[in-house]
User: What shape does this take?
Amino acid sequence: MEDTKHGNDNRRKRRRRRRIIASALFLIIALSLAWFFGSQATTTVVFVRYAETLGPDDQNPGLSPAGQQRAHELARVVGNIDVVAGIDAIFATQYRSTQEMAEPLADALQIPVQVVDSKNVRGLKQMILKEYKGDIVLVITDAEALPRLIRKFHGSKHLAPITEHEHDNLYLVSIPWYGKVKTLQLKYGTPYNP
Assistant: This one.
């Protein structure tokens, strides 16, 4: 009888041990999957062209009063683009107009404007996808570089040409860790009238 009792106790201990091991394995697998899918987040890049400038006389013009107003409108529109954290990084080219365009948003969010060379499209793409994976990034550039950048991020290749006086386009390029890249075009500020 004692052998039976001792045998039952051993079976219970083995079952309990198996349950603990199975529970631990399940927990390890669940945490690993949560980490994996969390680290494979979607990166969103917001592209805009600099706003209206002072004039053609200057080689590196700043923003006109209308351009400054548009820069403040951009800060209002994208400042709270994500309900949790907002814009994580701001990139502007070496030109004064793009940097002035970034200032209102950078001041509001208290993050620096990172100045990049508008011709180094590949380097910018690599930096954003490596250092800002899963984040929301704003890139302010010129009308010539904007379509090249969007194509480089595998966004739409069918953007309508941007005219000289067209400053109201805002492009959202959503880059998932797996699947198709989406490009959305929105308008902000004073509408462009051809």
Q: What stands out?
A: Helices lie at 2-39, 65-78, 96-109, 121-131, 145-152. DSSP finds five helices and six strands in the chain. The longest helix spans residues 2-39.
